[in-house]
Write a structure and sequence with these properties.
Elements lengths: L10 H9 L7 H11 L4 E4 L6 H17 L22 E4 L3 H14 L6 E4 L5 H7 L6 E4 L1 H9 L10 E4 L2 H6 L3 H10 L5 E6 L4 H10 L4 E4 L10 E7 L3 H12 L7 E5 L3 H10 L7 E4 L5 H13 L4 E4 L12 E6 L6 H8 L9 E7 L1 H14 L3 E3 L30 H4 L29
Parallel strand pairs: 1-6, 1-7, 2-4, 2-5, 3-4, 5-6, 8-13, 8-14, 9-11, 9-12, 10-11, 12-13
C-alpha cells in the first residue's frame, strides 16, 4: 500500500491527511495500520521519528468513524462491551511522560472529527479538574500510568469498557519503573481487547510483558536493532574540564541559523539548571526542562521552544523521547550518556522526517574510550573534532544559590530522600496513593 488512500480509510479521514500534506505512509504506518484494522495485537519496533504515533492513532479514528457510518470494523472493537461499561473510554493510550501524553492527544485532534472525544491525563496538574472532565467520559484517554491509576482508584475513570489498548514508548516505561503500575492497569481492563505495543527497542523484559498482555501479536520491525537515522552526523570533542564544556556548548549554539533549534542533554537536573543559567537563560534564548518543573512551566517552555522564542533547550532525558519538534538541527550531549539507548533517543530529536541533523558529544579523556565502544556497538560512524575558538559566554542568568549545589553532596528532603519513586514527576503523590512503598532511592530521580 503506497498511499493512505490504498488503505480504504474513511474518505473524510483520507482527505484530512491529504490536507495536512500526508499522502504516503511511513514504513511503520504502512506495516501496522492494515494489521491493526484487522483487529490483531501488534508488537511494532521502529526508530524514533518514524511516525509511530499516527500508526496507532489512525486505526483508533478509523474504527470510530466506521461505527458511526454503520460499517462493521473487524476486531475486538465491534464486540459489545455491555451497557455497564458505557461510562468509560473505549480506547486507552499509555505514555511515559506528560509531554508525550499531551502530544499524542494533540496529534489525535489534528485528524479526528469532533465526534471522537478525547482527554489527556497526567500528574503535575490538579486532579480535581480531571475528575470534572471525566463526568462526561471521552472515547479516548491518553495518560501516564500513575495518574490513570489515581483516577481509576477514585472511581472517576472506568476502564472496564476499554477494547483497544496502546502502550507507546514501551521500553522507556519499563526503564522508568512503571512495570507494576502497568500490570495494575492491565488487571482493570477486560480480557477481550486489542493491544498494540510500540517501541524503538524490544528488550527481553518488554517481550515478557507482551506475552502477559497480548494474544498472538503480529511482529513488525521496520528498523531492526538499535539504530539512529542515517541523516544524522555524529561527532565528538574531548575537553579538559567542565568550564570548557560550557564554553563549547555556547560556541556550538552560536552556529545555528535563523529558525533553527538545538537541544542539550545533561544526566542530572542540577546540571541542567546550572548550565542553562551559565548560558544566559531565557534572556539569551536558552530554556531548561527537567522532571522537577511544574506542568505549567514545562508546557510554557516547550511552547516557547516550538514557537522559536527559545532557540536552545537544556534538558534531562525527560525530553529525550516522544517530543516532535521541528528544525532541531543539533543535539549536544554535555557528557557521555549513561547507556546506548539514551544516546539513541536523545540523538533522535534531530534528523526527523529524513531531515539532516548533527549530534555532538563533549567528553573527558576517560570517557572517550567508553564512547568509542558504544558507537561500535551501535554500528555508528563518528569522528573526533578539534576544539573551535570559543565565543565569549554571556552574563549568567540569575538562579537560586541552592541550584548550584550538587545534590549528591548534601542530604535531600522530600520524595527522593525517602526513596519514593518520582518517574520524572509523572507518578502520583502519596496523597492519592495510600500505603505507597518505600525502598532504595531511585535512579530515575535524575530526570
Amino acid at each position: 500500500m503506497s498511499t493512505f488512500a490504498d488503505m480504504n480509510l474513511q474518505p473524510s479521514l483520507a482527505q484530512r491527511l491529504l490536507q495536512a500534506g500526508l499522502s504516503t505512509p511511513t514504513p511503520v504506518q504502512q506495516a501496522a495500520i492494515p494489521v491493526a484494522l484487522e483487529g490483531r495485537d501488534i508488537m511494532a519496533q521502529a526508530k524514533t521519528g518514524s511516525g509511530k504515533t499516527l500508526a496507532f492513532l489512525l486505526p483508533i479514528i478509523e474504527q470510530v468513524m466506521r461505527r458511526e457510518a454503520s460499517v462493521p470494523a473487524p476486531g475486538p472493537y465491534v464486540k459489545s462491551a455491555g451497557p455497564s461499561h458505557s461510562s468509560g473510554p473505549k480506547f486507552l493510550v499509555l505514555a511515559p511522560t506528560r509531554e508525550l501524553a499531551l502530544q499524542i492527544e494533540m496529534e489525535l485532534r489534528k485528524y479526528a472529527p469532533a465526534s471522537v472525544t478525547s482527554m489527556s491525563v497526567y500528574g503535575g496538574t490538579p486532579i480535581e479538574r480531571q475528575y470534572r472532565a471525566l463526568q462526561r467520559p471521552p472515547m479516548v484517554v491518553v495518560g501516564t500510568p500513575g495518574r490513570l491509576l489515581d483516577l481509576a482508584g477514585s472511581g472517576h475513570l472506568k476502564l472496564g469498557g476499554v477494547t483497544f489498548l496502546v502502550m507507546d514508548e514501551a521500553d522507556q516505561m519499563l526503564d522508568r519503573g512503571f512495570l507494576r503500575d502497568i500490570q495494575r492497569i492491565i488487571r482493570l481492563l477486560p480480557a477481550e481487547r486489542q493491544t498494540l505495543l510500540f517501541s524503538a527497542t524490544f528488550s527481553g523484559d518488554i517481550q515478557t510483558l507482551a506475552q502477559s498482555m497480548q494474544r498472538d501479536p503480529a511482529r513488525i520491525s521496520v528498523d531492526p536493532g538499535i539504530n539512529t537515522p542515517t541523516t544524522i552526523v555524529h561527532a565528538y570533542y574531548v575537553v579538559p574540564g567542565d568550564q570548557v564544556r560550557t564554553q563549547l556548548v555556547h560556541t556550538l549554539l552560536q552556529t545555528m541559523k535563523a529558525g533553527e533549534r538545538s537541544m542539550v542533554f545533561c544526566d542530572q537536573k542540577y546540571k541542567v539548571r546550572r548550565l542553562a543559567a551559565h548560558l544566559g537563560g531565557e534572556p539569551a534564548s536558552v530554556g531548561s526542562l527537567t522532571g522537577n518543573h511544574s506542568q505549567a512551566q514545562r508546557e510554557r517552555t516547550l511552547g516557547a521552544f516550538r514557537a522559536g522564542n527559545i532557540r536552545s533547550l537544556v534538558a534531562t532525558d525527560v525530553a529525550a523521547r516522544g517530543l516532535d519538534i521541528q528544525d532541531v538541527v543539533q543535539v549536544i550531549h554535555y557528557e557521555l550518556p549513561t547507556n546506548p539507548n539514551s544516546y539513541v533517543h536523545r540523538t533522535g530529536r534531530t534528523g526527523r522526517a529524513e531531515k539532516e541533523g548533527s549530534t555532538f558529544l563533549i567528553l573527558s579523556q576517560s570517557e572517550e574510550r567508553e564512547y568509542l565502544r558504544m558507537v561500535r556497538q551501535l554500528k555508528i560512524e563518528t569522528k573526533k573534532l578539534a576544539l573551535p575558538v570559543f565565543a565569549p559566554l554571556p552574563a549568567p542568568a540569575p538562579m537560586p544559590a541552592s541550584d548550584y549545589q550538587d545534590p549528591r553532596a548534601r542530604p535531600r528532603r522530600g520524595a527522593e530522600s525517602t526513596g519514593r519513586r518520582s518517574h520524572g514527576g509523572e507518578n502520583r503523590g502519596s496523597a492519592h496513593r495510600p500505603g505507597a512503598s518505600v525502598g532504595a532511592p531511585s535512579r530515575h530521580s535524575r530526570y
